[in-house]
Every structure is written in structure tokens, then in C-alpha cells.
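Progress report, Aim 2. The chain analyzed during this reporting quarter is listed below.
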Amino acid sequence: MSRVFRNVVCMAVLMLALASCSTTRFVPEGHTLLNAVHVDVAGEYKDINTAALRAYVRQKPNSRWFSLLKLPLHVYSAAGTDTTKWLNRMLQSIGEPPVVFDSTKAVLTQGDLRQQLINEGFLKADVSMITSQHGRKTDVTYMLQPGQPYFIHHISYQIDDPCISRILQAEDTLRRLLHEGMRFDLNKLDAERKRITALLADSGYFRFNKEYITYRADTAAGSQLISLTLRLGLLTRNGRPDTLHSRYRVNSIEYANTDPTGRRLPLRQAVLNECTHLSEGNYYSATGLRNTYNHFGRMQAIRYTNISLAPEPDTTLLNCNIQLQAAKPSTISFQPEGTNTAGDLGAAASLTYQNRNLLRGSEVLSLQLRGAYEAIKGLEGYEGQDFTEYSLEARLQFPRLLVPFFSTHASSALTSTSELSLLYDLQDRPEFHRRVLSAAWRYKWHRPGSNQHFQLDVLDLNYVFMPWISSTFRREYLENETSRNAILRYNYEDLFITKFGVGYSYAKGPVAIKLNLETSGNLLSGASALFGARQDENGHYRLFNIAFAQYAKADIDVTRSWQIDEQNQIVAHIGFGIAYPYGNSSVLPFEKRYFSGGANSVRGWSVRSLGPGKYRERDGRINFISQTGDMKLDMNLEYRTHLFWKLGAAAFIDAGNVWTLRNYDMQPEGQFKPEELLSQLAVSYGMGMRLNLGYFILRFDLGMKAVNPAYKSDDDEHFPLLHPRFSRDYAFHFAVGLPF
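Predicted C-alpha cells for the chain:
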């Protein structure tokens, strides 16, 4: 019996032992365990979201791992009654005490569910409760009897304030949440009150609140149709509504430094004006006030912001006072880290200096010096030689869009960043020395309150050069004239990569989308052709006798989650990327090629060990180059559950691969062919643990191969799901953060 099989058997025995513990052991006499709760709908009308109504259930049963087993309750029940023993205390602390059925909470839940049905337009709704007891366990079913819903037949508006009436007629007609024919819903009626209140608060009505808006609903006998009247009344004085609502203008805006050690304001006047979204002489705006807080809050030079608005006596003028407290101007930090590259262990450390207010406009200057060392083992011909890396990076961020001919007013309406970065990276490996010089200018922006974020890489220049290559590496790989090493040779030449790219992301509720497009070399190639530059023997142009890459690349990621209950969630992800070299390149740069396997891909394979297509490793020496491609597909389905304390677990299924778009001799069977897509998909499954520490999540995943497209002749290797061999089919991953 293998060690893995023995471990599985032991785990199964332990699970059975825990499951055999009586879950009612700690339930007091005369009471029962709340075993299950159901919310069902009786009657013909089924258009009711019972999953959303479960939020109104006041007492829920013990949590289930993967919606199946109440293991936390079993762990708690396995503890003895003697709490002086450490084992009992530990089991109770990591377990979950039994939920004892409370009839009072059940009756209150009935009322809450009935009221919510009424709020949703089922004015004659009723809720019955059915309990069934099995030994010392109770199942509860709340049976909803909604009846027929009521609908809005006619809507009228009674606005007593003529100025407000004009505002609502001029700006509000198309944005109304209420319309004739819709189901009567108290939640939407309240949402309409809030929307009108927000509109008026942005139109100068500083002290307006939603309580000034009321409804009157009339129904005809024997009908489910409602005539609705929205009324906005006047202010009451001496018990009588006879005063118009006051509409305020901003009279003055003043700034003050609340730091007792500082005299002048931390920001320049132009920056203060840019961050302030209230204007002297204009009507007060609640959104403008909120945006002012947001813009000052994102200024790293500012630690604290307080804005006070005081009406002048007997007027409709507001005086605005903005109080600012400066943050610490500069910091120095040191961060050590551990590294693990394909089993080679190492360590790294970085020293970072940051100035948060370089030019008194909250410009952030960061200087980072980083060093890394990695012990390389098993590299033939290079005994006792390791990997070292040193890098120096300078980054300057401006909290605004620095774009010629772009108005400051338009820029201030966005939350934006302009960034300039410079990097010099020095890598010394036993086989070669590599240097990377990078310079980039990019913009990031989004509109406050929006779910969409944008990024524009105006210029991202990378110059990669190789000052030294060992004779062994050059002889065995680079000077070998077979086409097998074409990709290798290209990626160990000096190279320019001049990238232009755009990025877009969207996140709202359970849906997240990321899209990135980039291209490189088009301007250089066009200029070279225009001015008649000479080409090398491969027909490629060179800049200062250095090759430059030309390609186009597109990536999209879509994630969708479904919340089953408070403890369980299903997440689906699909990622697709494609890159095509053309013009001045016949091969993609290594940094732009796709790889599969690893903690965020098909987890049954280690990183860079899957694909392309049906390609399988030949000699095991240069597959970090060979097992890359021009196209990638990832599909993932993950079931996540909370265990106890800060621990969670997941079960997952992954599928995907990478392919080349061209036929490279060094990557046989790696080219993408649509008719072979399904047969070349790799599939894996597995389980993982998550430790949620708040600021970050530690993730441990164990993946197993299920379908291996790169098999030999025997089916044992083709379908590891049917013929598992742990030593051959497993991959363990440690990562920070969720996979998608």
C-alpha cells in the first residue's frame, strides 16, 4: 500500500470518526438542533427570489463544508465536556457550537418574510411555518403564500415648490425609477425618494432630506391596480406647510493647515483648486462635496481632510472651510522576501525611499534598490554557480492627467494618475548575463463611483542586451544551426521592445472583466521603410544595429461568481490571450510569450511545464523556452467554502493549454489547429487551503492531472484520472492571493 493511499485511508477514517460523533451532544435537554431551513413558495406565482429572502431568516443551521458535511459542528461535538483539557478547548475553538432551534426567532422570521413580500408588491401575502422533528433535530420550512402581486396603474406628481418642480421636469424625466405597469415595490419607491433627494442635493438644496417626499397609494375594490401619487411638500412653519425649500450657493472657500508644526499649506494653490469640486458663486452640490473629499483623500501628501459648511445668517449662502493635515513627507522601508523558481530556493530584499510631496502637488517619487540571490542546482556544466540579480527603479507618480491640450476641469472630474518609471535590471546566471533597461509613461483613470478603470501605456520601452554568454550555452544552443533553436537564438540577442497598450477593467457585483491590447514596433518599422533603412539577412530592420520586436497582443479575462450562502461560493473563470509576431519579427519575445501550468492556470502542472499543444519535453534542459506559445486558453471552476477561524478550502477543475500560431520545428505538435482543440486541452482537478490574514491570502493548492494531451502511446498517461499515479501526476502550489 503506497504512502499516498495510506494517507487517504487515514483521512477517510478520521472523517468517518468525526461524522459519527453525536451532533446533539451539547444541545440542552428539552431543546433540539436546528438541522435545516428551507424557504419555499406555494401557489401559482413563482417569480420570487427565495435565495434573497433567506437573508431575512433570523436563525440559520450550522455551516456545511462544500454544502455537504457539517464538519465544524462534528469537530465541536468531538470535544469532551471537561474544558480544563487543552484538546477539548482546541476542538471547541476551531469547531462550531450547535445552533439550538429557537421558536421565538422562527416566529419573528415569519413576520419579516411576510413584510418583505408586502414590500415587493404582494400586499395580501402570508407565510406559514412547517416544522418536522427527527429525534433531537428540527427541520424548518417557511412556506411563502404570496398571492397575486399589485401593479402601478397610474402615477401622478404633486410638487408644491415651483423651483423644485422645474428642476424635476427639466432634468429628471428619463431617470425616473417608477413607471406605469411595473410591480408595486416599496423598495423601489424608497429608492426613488433617495434618487430625487440626491438630485436636489446636487442642485443647491443643502438641507433637503427624503422625508419631505411622501406617497399616497389608492386601490380599487377587487383590483390589483394601484394609483400612486408622489408628493413633495413645503417646509412647515408654525404647524403649517408654507415655506419654500432653501437653495444654497457657495459664498467662499478657504483652506487651512491644521498641522501645528506647519505654516503654509501642503499643496500648491492650483492643486487645491483642482481637488475642490465646489465653486464660489455656484449652487451647492453633494456630489461635489463627496468628490472633494475623495480627491483630497487620494493625495498621499494629505493625512486628514475635514470640510465644514456654515450658512451665513438669514441668507442662502454657504461658507466652505477645508482643513488639511499633511502626511509624513518621506519614508524609507526595507522588505525581505523568499523566492522559489522551479525548486531553486533563494532570498531577496528591497530598500525603498518614497517622497510623497516632491513638488507640493502630492507627486510621489519612489526609489527602490533590490537584490536577489538564488541557489541553482542540477544545471549541467555549471556546478557551484548561482543566480544573482540587482535592480534600481525610479518611479514618479502625478495624481492627475498630464496631457497636452487636455483641460484641467475635465481632468479634475476623474480619479487619475500619470506615471513615469525607469528601471535598470542586472541579472547574472551561470549560462549568461542579461541587462534590461526600461522606461515607461502611462496613464490610469476612472470616474468616481464608476465600475470601469482604464490604463493607457503611451510608451513602454525595453532594451534587453546580453553582455556575456558562456561558451557552453552558446555552443550547445545558440550556435547550433538547426531550426530547432530559432526561438532560443532570437531571445538571446539584443532587442528593443517599444510597446503601446491600452487596458480596461470592469467589476460590478459577481462579474469582473479585464481586457488588454498592446502592439510594438509599428512606428519603428514604418519609419525604417519610409527612410529606406537597410535590412539584415533575415529581412529585418535594425535600430542602432539592434533588432526591434513587432507584434500585436490581446488578452481578456472574465470571472463570474455565485454566492450559495454565507459559507459557500462557486467561481468560474475564463482567460484567453493571443499574440502574433509580424513584420520585423517572426518570433515573439520571450517576455511576451504565454505559458501554462502553475498556481493561476492549469494546476495539475507546475509552471511552464504544459504545452504547447501536444508537445512534451525532450531533454529537460531548455523547456522554459520550448514550453511557451503564442496563444493561451484557461478555463477554471472553483468551489470555495469557509472552514473555521481564518481558514477556507476549495475544490477546483482546470482546463487549458498554450499553442503556437506558426509551425516551429523545435516545438513539434505545438501549432494550434481548430479541429484538434478538444483533444489538446489539458484537464486537472484538486483541492486547496486558504489562510485569510486580512491584508493578504496565503494559498496552498494540490492539483492532479486528469487529461494529459502530451502523452506517449499508453492510455495510462493520457487519462491520469482513470489511472492515477501520484508521483507522476501531482503538482503542489504555494501562492499569495486568489487564483482569479
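Residues 3-20 form the longest helix (18 residues). Confidence is low (pLDDT under 50) at residues 1-20. These observations will guide the mutagenesis work planned for the next reporting period.
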